[in-house]
Amino acid sequence: MPTAIVSAMHQELAAVLALMPDEHKQVAAGREFWVGHLHGREVVVVLSRIGKVAAATTATALIERFGVQRIVFTGVAGGIAPGVARGDVVVADQFLQHDLDASPIFPRYEVPLYGLSRFATDAVLTDRLDAAVRHALPGTRVHRGLIASGDRFVSSATESQALQQALPEALCVEMEGAAIAQVCHDYGVPFAAVRTISDRADDDAHGDFVQFIEQVASRHSAAIVDALLMRSA
Ligand code: SAH
């Protein structure tokens, strides 16, 4: 059964597709899924699209239509914890939706009817992804912990400081991970995610982000995916 490789930006997807000898396109849910092999292993590569709902649809289609056995997300994020700098890599242990608030009926951040605010990634797949990152990008600083997702490109110091105060454990902020983690929780499908820090979610975030995607992020994603699939059992 295939492994899904998901990214939000097409520069990253292009770099992963370039590693595949035999990909062919299948369209479902208005998305292009690339089915083929990487290091002899079956993979399905797709753009999540941006934001939580789009990412949830993509994850659901991967599971329901393509029968994927595990989902690996690779992308970029804005650093919010002190010391999580541009060019560092964050491997997710847990995800939370920082923009979810059904209080006072449910505690802030809790997903109604789940009794949970945090969704854990799969421990075994996450360890393998962590090892792949260290193998592919020696010398890169790797953090591991909580990632906060929400439907906002966080691009002001005021907002990132408020997030940091509300969620001191959150290492970085992005727009898809918690949605995929919740879908994978529902279906019992292992999920792991890695994000390269493209910006500090502050007033310079937008300029930093555009430049970084072109120069660094796509190379990182392809190298990590390559190392993961080469080393997988
Ligand atoms: N296409 C737009 C921005 C894309 S949104 C542009 O070119 O400006 C940013 C993507 O990168 C999302 O998929 C999100 O997951 C991630 N990301 C990177 N930095 C982020 C930040 N500061 N806040 C939220 N998401 C961020």
Overview of the structural elements:
The chain has 233 residues and is of the alpha/beta class. It has a single domain (3-231), classed as Rossmann fold, CATH 3.40.50.1580. The chain has six helices and ten strands, in the order E-H-E-E-E-H-E-E-E-H-E-H-E-H-E-H. The protein has helices at residues 10-17, 52-64, 123-136, 157-166, 177-187, 205-231, and strands spanning 3-7, 24-28, 31-38, 41-47, 70-79, 89-97, 118-120, 142-149, 170-174, 191-199. The protein has a five-stranded mixed beta barrel with strand order 5-9-8-6-10, surrounded by four helices. Strand 8, helix 4 and strand 9 form a beta-alpha-beta unit. Helix 2 (52-64) runs parallel beside helix 5 (177-187) and helix 3 (123-136) packs across helix 6 (205-231). The mean pLDDT is 95. It binds S-adenosyl-L-homocysteine. S-adenosyl-L-homocysteine (SAH) is lined by residues 8, 50, 75-78, 153-155, 173-176, 198-199, 201, 205-206, 209-210.
Helix content: 25-40%
What structural class should be given to the helix and strand makeup?
alpha/beta
Number of helices in the DSSP assignment: 6
State the end-to-end CA separation.
13 Å
Query: Would you list the SSEs in sequence order as H and E?
Result: EHEEEHEEEHEHEHEH
CATH architecture: 3-Layer(aba) Sandwich
The CATH superfamily appears as: Nucleoside phosphorylase domain
Radius of gyration: 16 Å
